[in-house]
Design goal:
Shape: globular
Order of helices and strands: HHHHHHHHH
Distance between the termini: 21 Å
Oligomer: single chain
Strand content: under 5%
Structural class: mainly alpha
Length: 226
Amino acid sequence: MGKAIGDVLGLAAGVAVSPLPIVAIILALATPRGRLNGSLFALAWIVGLALLGAITLVIGGTGGASSTHKEPATWVGALKLALGVLLALFGARQWRRRPADPSQAQLPKWMAAIDRCTPAKIFGLGLLLSAANLKNAPLTIAAGASISSAGIPVPQQIGVLAVFVIIASLGVLAPLAVYLFMGERAKGVLSTWRNWAALHNGAVLAVLFFVLGLKLLGDGISILAA
C-alpha cells in the first residue's frame, strides 16, 4: 500500500496545483453566500475526483497487475503512455498560447458570472473543474490505474484513492480554510492569491502539463518494456 501511495503523490500534487479552480473558489467565497458557495465548490471538487478515481478502479479492478509477476498489466502502461502524450501536447499548446506579458493574461469570461451562480451551479462548476478538467481528469485516471496496478486488496485501493483525493484537494481547500479561520484578514490574502493565479495560470499549466506528461510517458514506457 505504501508503494501505491508513493506512486500517486506526484499526480495528486499536480491536480492540487490548479490555478483556475483556485481562482474560482476564491471568487465563490467573495459572493454574498461565500461560506455556502465555497463549501459547495470544495465538496463538488472532492466528489468529482473521488467518482472519477472510483470509476477507474472499477474498470481496472484487481486486474491492473500481472497475476504472475505482480507487475502492472500491459493496458496500464498503454494508458499511461497515451495520457502522457496527451498532457505533453497540451503543455506545448498552452506554452505557445500563454501571453508574452503576464499582465495581459485574462480570466475566462464565465468567471465573471460566478457571483450570480446559484448554489446548484456552483456545485456543478466544482464537478466540472475537477473531473472534466483537461489536466485533472488524465492525472486522476492515471492515479486510478496506478492504484489498480499495485496488486493490493480493494479496501487498500480505496484507502490509497482517499489519500490521493485529499492531497489533490489541498489547492482548493486552502482558500476555504483561510476564509473560515482568518476572518477579515482573509480578504487581503485571498486577493493576493487570486491575482497571482490569474497572472501566471498559463505558464503554470504549461509547465505542469509538460512535466507530468513526461512522467506518465516514462511510467508507460517502463511498464511496456518490462
